[in-house]
Amino acid sequence: MNSIHNTKHESYTTSWTYGIDYQLSSDPTLQIYELIDIFTNKVNIINHFKKEFNLKCKIAVILVFPETTGLLINQKLIKFAYNTNSEYDIDIYRDEI
Known about the structure:
Helix 3 (75-83) links the parallel strand 1 (58-65) and strand 2 (87-94). The chain is extended and about 60 Å long. It has 97 residues and is an alpha+beta fold. It has a two-stranded parallel sheet with strand order 1-2. The termini are far apart. It has three helices and two strands.
C-alpha cells in the first residue's frame, strides 16, 4: 500500500539583540569596540549556543553621519567576527541636517 503523507513544516525565526544607546561620535569604531569588549570574553558561550541551537551570529552596525566618513574594520573587530564565525552587517545613512 502506497500512501502520500502531506507534512506541514513550520519555520520559526527568532533573534536576540544587544545594543547600545545612540551616541554622537566622529569615530564609530569606538561604539563597536564598546560592544566587542562586552562579548570578547563570552566567545566560548556564544559558540556553545550557536552549536547547540544551530544559531547564526551577526554583528549589525547602523551608522548615521551628517557627512560621509569612513569606518575602519581593524584586526580586533576581524578577530572577534572570526572567533564567533560572525559577519558584519553595516548600514550607513546620511543624516541631512
